[in-house]
Design brief:
Length: 295
Amino acid sequence: MTDSKIDFPLTGVIGIVDSSVSQLELAQQFGLHCVEIRADLLHSGAGMSDNDVLTVISAAKVAGLACLYTLRHEDQGGTFNGSEDQRVARCKQALEAGADMIDLESGTDAAIDMLQSNAPLILSYHNFDSMLGATELAKLSAEMEAQTPAAVKIIPTGQSLADAAMMMAWVRGAGSEVKRIGFSMGADGALGRVLALTCGSPITYASFGAPVAPGQVDISMLIERYKCMSMTVDTRVTALIGDDASIEQFYADQKSKSDSVDTTIGNVCVAFTIADASAVEKWQKELNISEIIRL
């Protein structure tokens, strides 16, 4: 995996600031490097004004946090219901206030405008209803990458480990110019949120409170159990197959050891149910799993 055409400012777990400026303190407590300022949710849920949101951006920068600004339109899964001209104006204000990047949806007038002005942009696509087929995924990503944003983000809704594996293989297939951020939403897609960083995605998303998207993993688990803040493409992934009791006992034993188990069976251990064993074996390569251990 090679560097993108720009120095990508977002790394590791990105915490979603969606309800209060105090979430920046949580980001610092968790040791995060970056946050996503969900301006649409701060407007609709917390009653913040445009100036309030700009103040949150400034506070994030003072706290040493890189900042992604997202004003998601309601027809794209967000709550903003203004015009595209308004979105462009607010994105420009956010960048002037110190935001490192913005996120806009592929095909929208706002995205086209900001790409033409060479803004640091994640060009995104979300499908809250279904999974993309392999051909459709390849076509969509090619069209998005041809617009040369800093990164493309594709998040469909999956129904199986096979769907999660497809998205991890897609992330690993990124070229040298445009980074890829992707996983599938839904219960099985939670695996992709854990493994995305090992496949070359620069970030994986986590909420500080209630999930803002299906399949989001608790931020404490991403950081403490899965060590996502230190994950890279060189991280070795071990799949654990077992029942709930054996899995929890394994993690309890791992936590209690003074010298990390990482050096003996892998850098990170990800649990699967016994029912998932055959799917894990089938999709082991796509999921970037080095070893499978049955407990």
